[in-house]
Design brief:
Shape: globular
Helix content: 10-25%
Strand order of the largest sheet: 6-3-2-1-15-16
Radius of gyration: 17 Å
Number of strands: 16
Strand content: 25-35%
Order of helices and strands: EHEHEEEEEEEEHEHEEEEE
Protein backbone atom coordinates (compact mmCIF):
# COMPACT_ATOMS: atom_id res chain seq x y z
CA UNK A 1 0.00 0.00 0.00
CA UNK A 2 1.45 3.35 -1.07
CA UNK A 3 0.63 6.33 1.16
CA UNK A 4 0.95 10.06 0.40
CA UNK A 5 1.50 12.07 3.60
CA UNK A 6 1.20 15.88 3.63
CA UNK A 7 1.32 18.57 6.30
CA UNK A 8 1.99 22.23 7.13
CA UNK A 9 2.84 23.50 3.66
CA UNK A 10 1.15 23.66 0.27
CA UNK A 11 3.61 21.62 -1.76
CA UNK A 12 3.84 22.74 -5.42
CA UNK A 13 4.54 19.15 -6.47
CA UNK A 14 1.17 18.13 -4.99
CA UNK A 15 -0.79 21.31 -5.78
CA UNK A 16 -0.14 20.91 -9.48
CA UNK A 17 -1.89 20.08 -12.72
CA UNK A 18 0.44 17.09 -13.02
CA UNK A 19 -0.41 15.73 -9.54
CA UNK A 20 -2.55 12.92 -10.95
CA UNK A 21 0.28 11.69 -13.13
CA UNK A 22 2.90 12.09 -10.39
CA UNK A 23 0.87 10.43 -7.62
CA UNK A 24 -1.45 8.20 -9.64
CA UNK A 25 -0.31 5.02 -7.88
CA UNK A 26 -1.15 6.30 -4.38
CA UNK A 27 -3.62 4.17 -2.39
CA UNK A 28 -4.14 6.38 0.67
CA UNK A 29 -3.64 10.03 1.67
CA UNK A 30 -2.87 11.25 5.21
CA UNK A 31 -3.08 14.95 6.08
CA UNK A 32 -1.21 15.68 9.32
CA UNK A 33 -2.53 19.16 10.07
CA UNK A 34 -2.07 22.88 9.43
CA UNK A 35 -3.38 22.64 5.88
CA UNK A 36 -6.13 24.82 4.38
CA UNK A 37 -9.31 22.96 3.51
CA UNK A 38 -9.21 23.99 -0.15
CA UNK A 39 -5.80 22.32 -0.47
CA UNK A 40 -7.17 19.10 1.02
CA UNK A 41 -10.17 19.41 -1.30
CA UNK A 42 -7.82 19.74 -4.29
CA UNK A 43 -5.92 16.60 -3.25
CA UNK A 44 -9.11 14.59 -2.76
CA UNK A 45 -10.75 15.70 -5.99
CA UNK A 46 -7.58 15.30 -8.07
CA UNK A 47 -6.33 11.95 -6.78
CA UNK A 48 -9.74 10.51 -5.79
CA UNK A 49 -8.26 8.32 -3.04
CA UNK A 50 -9.32 7.65 0.52
CA UNK A 51 -8.10 10.60 2.60
CA UNK A 52 -7.84 11.09 6.36
CA UNK A 53 -7.01 14.34 8.12
CA UNK A 54 -6.48 15.85 11.56
CA UNK A 55 -6.21 19.48 12.66
CA UNK A 56 -3.02 21.17 13.78
CA UNK A 57 -2.68 24.40 15.77
CA UNK A 58 -3.25 26.68 12.76
CA UNK A 59 -5.83 26.73 9.92
CA UNK A 60 -8.62 26.08 12.41
CA UNK A 61 -11.48 27.88 10.66
CA UNK A 62 -13.43 24.59 10.35
CA UNK A 63 -12.41 23.14 13.70
CA UNK A 64 -15.72 24.17 15.23
CA UNK A 65 -17.62 21.88 12.88
CA UNK A 66 -15.91 18.91 14.54
CA UNK A 67 -15.33 20.14 18.11
CA UNK A 68 -17.41 22.62 20.04
CA UNK A 69 -15.16 24.68 22.30
CA UNK A 70 -15.99 26.84 25.29
CA UNK A 71 -13.57 29.43 26.60
CA UNK A 72 -13.10 29.10 30.36
CA UNK A 73 -12.82 32.23 32.46
CA UNK A 74 -9.92 33.05 34.72
CA UNK A 75 -6.58 34.88 34.79
CA UNK A 76 -5.27 32.46 32.15
CA UNK A 77 -8.24 31.62 29.89
CA UNK A 78 -8.25 28.16 28.33
CA UNK A 79 -10.43 26.26 25.91
CA UNK A 80 -12.54 23.32 27.06
CA UNK A 81 -13.97 20.83 24.58
CA UNK A 82 -17.70 20.28 25.06
CA UNK A 83 -18.60 17.72 22.43
CA UNK A 84 -17.52 16.24 19.11
CA UNK A 85 -19.53 15.93 15.92
CA UNK A 86 -19.20 13.04 13.48
CA UNK A 87 -18.83 14.97 10.24
CA UNK A 88 -16.81 14.26 7.12
CA UNK A 89 -16.40 17.88 6.09
CA UNK A 90 -17.09 19.66 2.86
CA UNK A 91 -13.73 18.72 1.35
CA UNK A 92 -14.32 14.98 1.16
CA UNK A 93 -11.71 13.78 3.64
CA UNK A 94 -12.49 11.74 6.77
CA UNK A 95 -11.70 13.31 10.11
CA UNK A 96 -9.56 11.03 12.30
CA UNK A 97 -9.06 13.32 15.29
CA UNK A 98 -9.36 11.38 18.59
CA UNK A 99 -10.94 8.43 16.79
CA UNK A 100 -10.08 4.83 15.99
CA UNK A 101 -11.22 4.00 12.47
CA UNK A 102 -11.44 0.83 10.38
CA UNK A 103 -11.12 1.21 6.63
CA UNK A 104 -12.57 -1.81 4.84
CA UNK A 105 -11.89 -0.23 1.46
CA UNK A 106 -8.18 -0.69 2.10
CA UNK A 107 -7.83 -4.31 3.22
CA UNK A 108 -4.74 -5.77 4.82
CA UNK A 109 -3.83 -9.44 4.78
CA UNK A 110 -3.34 -11.25 8.09
CA UNK A 111 -0.73 -13.98 8.49
CA UNK A 112 -3.41 -16.63 7.91
CA UNK A 113 -4.27 -15.07 4.55
CA UNK A 114 -7.59 -13.59 5.66
CA UNK A 115 -8.38 -9.95 5.01
CA UNK A 116 -8.84 -7.32 7.69
CA UNK A 117 -9.45 -3.55 7.48
CA UNK A 118 -6.71 -0.96 7.66
CA UNK A 119 -6.66 0.37 11.23
CA UNK A 120 -6.09 4.11 11.76
CA UNK A 121 -6.21 6.35 14.83
CA UNK A 122 -5.66 10.10 15.02
CA UNK A 123 -4.91 12.92 17.46
CA UNK A 124 -5.32 16.57 16.52
CA UNK A 125 -3.52 19.53 18.01
CA UNK A 126 -0.26 20.55 19.65
CA UNK A 127 1.15 20.99 23.11
CA UNK A 128 -0.35 23.97 24.97
CA UNK A 129 1.87 27.02 24.60
CA UNK A 130 -0.42 30.09 24.57
CA UNK A 131 -3.85 28.70 25.55
CA UNK A 132 -4.98 28.77 21.94
CA UNK A 133 -7.51 26.58 20.21
CA UNK A 134 -6.67 22.88 19.81
CA UNK A 135 -3.77 22.99 22.27
CA UNK A 136 -3.49 20.48 25.13
CA UNK A 137 -1.38 19.68 28.12
CA UNK A 138 0.25 16.28 28.15
CA UNK A 139 -2.33 15.11 30.71
CA UNK A 140 -5.24 16.30 28.56
CA UNK A 141 -3.83 14.48 25.54
CA UNK A 142 -3.22 11.35 27.61
CA UNK A 143 -6.87 11.30 28.69
CA UNK A 144 -7.95 11.54 25.06
CA UNK A 145 -5.70 8.62 24.16
CA UNK A 146 -7.04 6.57 27.06
CA UNK A 147 -10.57 7.18 25.77
CA UNK A 148 -9.57 5.44 22.53
CA UNK A 149 -8.10 2.34 24.17
CA UNK A 150 -11.34 0.27 24.31
CA UNK A 151 -11.61 0.32 20.52
CA UNK A 152 -7.94 -0.53 20.20
CA UNK A 153 -8.42 -3.53 22.46
CA UNK A 154 -11.35 -4.63 20.31
CA UNK A 155 -9.10 -4.35 17.25
CA UNK A 156 -6.60 -6.64 18.92
CA UNK A 157 -9.26 -9.24 19.67
CA UNK A 158 -10.80 -9.11 16.18
CA UNK A 159 -7.75 -8.64 13.97
CA UNK A 160 -4.72 -9.63 16.03
CA UNK A 161 -3.28 -6.11 16.02
CA UNK A 162 -4.17 -2.82 17.66
CA UNK A 163 -3.33 -0.34 14.97
CA UNK A 164 -1.53 0.22 11.67
CA UNK A 165 -1.19 4.02 11.53
CA UNK A 166 -1.33 6.71 14.20
CA UNK A 167 -1.89 10.12 12.55
CA UNK A 168 -0.97 13.15 14.68
CA UNK A 169 0.01 16.78 14.26
CA UNK A 170 2.56 17.03 17.07
CA UNK A 171 5.53 14.71 17.35
CA UNK A 172 6.34 12.43 20.28
CA UNK A 173 8.56 14.05 22.91
CA UNK A 174 12.27 13.85 21.99
CA UNK A 175 11.53 12.39 18.55
CA UNK A 176 11.71 15.09 15.83
CA UNK A 177 10.35 17.74 18.23
CA UNK A 178 12.07 20.97 19.35
CA UNK A 179 12.68 22.65 22.69
CA UNK A 180 10.71 25.86 22.15
CA UNK A 181 7.30 25.92 23.92
CA UNK A 182 5.30 25.58 20.70
CA UNK A 183 7.07 22.60 19.18
CA UNK A 184 7.63 20.27 22.10
CA UNK A 185 6.13 16.84 21.53
CA UNK A 186 3.79 14.82 23.74
CA UNK A 187 5.29 12.38 26.24
CA UNK A 188 2.08 10.35 26.07
CA UNK A 189 2.65 9.62 22.37
CA UNK A 190 5.73 7.62 23.36
CA UNK A 191 3.61 5.56 25.75
CA UNK A 192 0.96 5.10 23.06
CA UNK A 193 3.27 3.74 20.37
CA UNK A 194 5.09 1.52 22.86
CA UNK A 195 1.78 0.04 24.02
CA UNK A 196 -0.10 -0.27 20.72
CA UNK A 197 2.81 -0.62 18.27
CA UNK A 198 1.46 0.94 15.05
CA UNK A 199 3.67 0.46 12.02
CA UNK A 200 3.78 4.23 11.53
CA UNK A 201 3.23 7.39 13.55
CA UNK A 202 2.80 10.13 10.94
CA UNK A 203 3.08 13.70 12.27
CA UNK A 204 3.48 17.27 11.04
CA UNK A 205 4.18 20.50 12.97
CA UNK A 206 7.99 20.31 12.68
CA UNK A 207 9.11 22.20 9.60
CA UNK A 208 12.08 20.81 7.69
CA UNK A 209 14.04 23.86 6.59
CA UNK A 210 17.03 21.60 5.93
CA UNK A 211 15.63 18.85 3.73
CA UNK A 212 18.61 16.67 4.68
CA UNK A 213 17.15 16.35 8.17
CA UNK A 214 15.97 12.75 8.63
CA UNK A 215 12.23 12.25 8.29
CA UNK A 216 12.14 8.75 9.77
CA UNK A 217 13.06 7.58 13.26
CA UNK A 218 12.50 4.09 14.59
CA UNK A 219 10.96 3.83 18.08
CA UNK A 220 10.40 0.22 19.11
CA UNK A 221 8.14 -1.36 16.50
CA UNK A 222 6.99 2.03 15.16
CA UNK A 223 8.56 4.26 12.53
CA UNK A 224 7.94 7.93 13.34
CA UNK A 225 7.56 9.97 10.14
CA UNK A 226 7.65 13.73 9.67
CA UNK A 227 5.14 14.45 6.87
CA UNK A 228 6.17 18.11 6.39
CA UNK A 229 5.35 19.27 2.86
CA UNK A 230 4.96 15.75 1.44
CA UNK A 231 6.44 12.29 1.69
CA UNK A 232 5.47 8.82 0.46
CA UNK A 233 5.42 5.67 2.58
CA UNK A 234 4.79 2.01 1.86
CA UNK A 235 2.83 -0.30 4.14
CA UNK A 236 2.90 -4.06 3.68
CA UNK A 237 0.43 -6.69 4.78
CA UNK A 238 0.21 -7.48 8.51
CA UNK A 239 0.81 -3.78 9.11
CA UNK A 240 4.56 -3.99 8.50
CA UNK A 241 6.28 -0.87 7.17
CA UNK A 242 9.04 -1.01 4.59
CA UNK A 243 10.81 2.12 5.92
CA UNK A 244 10.83 3.56 2.44
CA UNK A 245 10.16 7.25 2.02
CA UNK A 246 10.13 9.63 -0.89
CA UNK A 247 9.86 13.40 -0.94
Amino acid sequence: MKILCVSDQIDPLVYSTSAKERFGDIDLILCAGDLPSDYIDFIVSTLNKQTYFIFGNHNLSEFGYYHKQKRQKGPHPTWREESALDLRGSFGAIYAGFKVLKDKKLPMLKKNGKKRPLLIAGASGSIRYNNGLNQYTNLQMLLKLLAMTPRLLINKMLYGTYLDIFLTHAAPRHIHDKEDPCHKGFECFNWFIKKFQPAYLVHGHIHLYDMNTPRLTKSGETTVVNAYSHTILELENDGMNTNKTEG
